[in-house]
Amino acid sequence: MTLNQIRYFVTVCQYQNFTKAAEKLHISQPGISKAMTELESECGTALFHRMHNSITLTPQGKALLEYARVFLEQYADFTAAAHSLSSMDSSLRIGMIPMCGSTIFPKLQTGFSNIWPDIRITTVEDSNYILYERLDRGEIDLALCVTNALPDADHAYCILKQSRLKLFVSHTHPLAAKHELSLQDLSGIPLVLFSDHYGQTRYIHRLFTEAGTMPQIVHQTTQVFTILEYIRSGAAAGFLSEEFAQEDPTIVPLTVREIPAANVYLVWKKKDDITPAMQKFTCFAGETFPESISVSPL
Questions:
Q1: At what angle are helices 104-115 and 276-288 packed, to 10 degrees?
Q2: Per-residue pLDDT of the chain (298 residues; tens, 9 = 90+)
Q3: Could you give phi then psi for residue 9, rounded to 5 degrees?
Q4: How many CB atoms are closer than 10 A to CB 47?
Q5: What are phi and psi of 117, to 5 degrees?
Q6: Which of 114, 132, 153, 222 is the most buried (most CB within 10 A)?
Q7: Counting beta carbons within 10 angstroms of the beta carbon of residue 285, is it exposed (0 to 12), middle (13 to 18) or buried (19 or more)?
Q8: Sequence-ordered alpha helix ranges (H) in the chain
């Protein structure tokens, strides 16, 4: 039994006429009749009731048609998957936390694309926790995270650099001249934070609790741009990575004594099928940041 026989059979069933099926398939009518006769011979039973100008399916033919349709759908999925294998070498799906998407990643993407313009990169932003889930589900290839916690044993990683979370204020803000402060100094200061599902926000809440004070939160958002607008306008102070000091000179970074530096990780799921595109990007990221540490080699 051949793939063509199955395709011919489904088409004949669709038109219930050998001549019309032959025209659809661009083959001769005797050719399709011969293929159906051979298929019936292999099945050991009649599949059609043949009449002068049309055909109808026997009960056995109806049963075979259901299997044939399922088979052709699965074969189409298989073919699509096989054809997509080559594209895996020329595409990358990268997830990142919003602050990396605004500071670290644009430099990486621009430099990488200049060297390998044929590798297509798609990106998504989310919290550290969600990015790890996406890695585990195979929805992304790499994740760019900032955390004080090491990735677990299921994930390989490279430490690109250290980055410190700082409190940013406008130049006219009452705290602008301090340069360094404690969380106690922020009592009663309006703050803008990321939404609660972000690990950074939960971390900030925990630090305030340990310091015995409560933050005065006036707004929460998923957007870095919104936080920056609150800071620039003087409506609130906000926590952002120290890289924003170079990106936006209109805001003032203040060191918070209770907040230590964290690591910027490039993380991927431990597995055997590391694609060439993943390997190229990981090596490029390590070369871009000279202080990087390849803790888990590819």
A1: 120
A2: 899 999 999 999 998 989 899 999 899 999 999 999 999 999 999 999 988 778 999 999 999 999 999 999 898 878 766 665 555 558 899 999 988 888 889 989 999 999 999 999 999 998 888 999 999 998 999 999 988 777 778 888 899 999 999 999 999 999 999 989 999 999 999 999 999 988 899 999 999 999 999 999 999 998 999 999 999 999 999 999 998 888 788 899 999 999 999 999 999 998 756 888 999 999 999 899 877 776 555 5
A3: -60, -45
A4: 22
A5: -65, -20
A6: 132
A7: buried
A8: 3-15, 18-25, 29-43, 59-84, 98-102, 104-115, 128-137, 199-210, 224-233, 244-247, 276-288
| Token reading at 201 | 């926000």
Torsion of CA 14, 17, 20, 23, to 10 degrees: 90
Instruction: Identify whether the C-beta of residue 119 lies closer than 8 Å to the C-beta of residue 112.
Output: yes
Angstrom distance (rounded) from CA 152 to CA 66 = 47
The SS3 call for residue 17 is: coil
- CA–chain centroid gap for 55, Å, is 51
Residue 153 C-alpha from the chain's centroid: 21
Please report where in the chains the tokens 């130049």 appear, as a residue. 171
Q: Which two tokens stand for residue 141?
A: 């290839």
Under 8 Å CB-to-CB from 105, ≥6 apart: which residues? 94, 96, 123, 144
SS3 244: helix
DSSP class of 92? E
Question: Residue 209: what residue type?
Answer: T
pTM of the model: 0.63
CA distance 198 to 130: 9
Residues constituting the chain: 298
3-state DSSP assignment of residue 147? strand
